[in-house]
Amino acid sequence: MGPCAPFAERPAVRDLNVLMKQDISGVLIIDKPSGMTSHDVVARVRRLLEIRQVGHFGTLDPFATGVLPLSVNKATRFAQFYLKSRKAYEGTIRLGFSTDTYDGTGKPTSEEVAASVEAATLERLLQEFTGRFLQTPPPYSAKRIGGKRAYELARQNKPVHLSPVEVEVYALELLSFDGTRATFAAECSGGTYIRSLAHDIGQKLGCGAHLDSLRRKAVAEFTLEKSVTLETLEKAVREQELEKCIVPLEALLPDCPELIVRGREEKSVRHGHKFELAQMERFGRGTGRVQAISLLKIMNPDRRLIAIARHVTGSIYHPDLVLV
Known about the structure:
- This protein folds into 3 domains: about 5-80 and about 220-250, Alpha-Beta Plaits (2-Layer Sandwich), CATH 3.30.70; about 85-220, Pseudouridine synthase, CATH 3.30.2350.10; about 255-320, Archaeosine Trna-guanine Transglycosylase, Chain: A, domain 4 (Roll), CATH 2.30.130.
- The protein is α+β, with helices and mostly antiparallel strands and about 325 residues long.
- Strands 1, 2, 3, 4, 5, 8, 9, 10, 11 and 12 form a 10-stranded mixed β-sheet that branches. A 6-stranded mixed β-sheet has the order 14-18-17-16-13-15, with helices on one face. Strands 6-7 form a two-stranded antiparallel sheet.
- It has helices at about 5-20, 40-50, 120-130, 150-155, 195-205, 230-240, 265-270, and strands at about 25-30, 55, 65-70, 85-95, 130-135, 145, 150, 165-175, 180-190, 210-220, 220-225, 245-250, 260, 275, 285, 295-300, 305-315, 315-320.
- The protein is built from 7 helices and 18 strands.
C-alpha cells in the first residue's frame, strides 16, 4: 500500500467514534456555571459530542448555577415526563430594593431602603409562601404573549401583562439572615419562578427585594451530587469514557414500576399495540394497585427499556413512547 493509506483510514476511525457516541442515549446531569444560558450549554454539548439530538429538562437563568439535566438522543423524548418535576434550590434574597428582572442582573425599580425585618418575621412570611397558590411570572421570562416572548416586550419597554398560574411550594426554609441578605432553601413544582418569590416577598415586606443568587440542587431524580461540570464532561469525551457521565434510559423515572415482556408480547409492545395488564403480570419491581399506576416502564428479558406505557382505562395500557 502507498504512503497515503494510513491517512485514508483516519476518517473511518473518526466516523466510528461518532457512531459510538450517537448510539449513546441517556441524561447528562450538568452543573451549569453562571453566565451561560441553558441554550449555550446545550449548544456546547452538541458540538462536544457531535450529536444534534441534545435538549434539556427545564431551563436555568444565566446567572443561576446548578443542576441542568441534558437529554441525549432517545432521551430527548422523555421531556414530557419531567415538565412538572419537583425541583430543589438554595439561594439568597437581597432585601432593600426591587429590580425589573426580579434578580441582581436587572435595573433597580425602587429606592434602596434599610430593611427593618427580624429573622422571626421573615421566617413566618416564608411560610405564607408555601403550599399551592397563584404566582405571576416575571416580565423578563420566556412566557409568550401574542406570539412573542415576554422578555422581548420588556426589553422594548412595552407593557407585559402575564396571567398568574398555579404553582406549589413544598418547603421554603430560612437558612441564615444578616438583616439584608436572606439565604434560603426551597422545594417546589415545575413552573415556579424563584425570582417571583423573592420579588413578592419584598412587596409583602414593603422594602422591595430581588433574587441575588440561585443554585439548583435537584430536578426530579437528578441531583447535584451526581452532576458533572462541562470540563469534566470534556475530559470524559477525550478519554472515551462518556458512558461514566450519562444516566442510561433504564435508570430514568426510577419510581415508575417495571413490566418485563418477551416473545409475542414484546413484539406487540414494539408495534405500539394496547395491552391488558392482567395478561402480563411479570413485574420487575413495585406492583401496587393496578388502577394507581399511571405509567409503566416496559423492559425486555435483557432488562433493556423498550417503551413507556400510559394507563388508558381499567387494566388497559398503551405504549405511548416506543424506543425502536
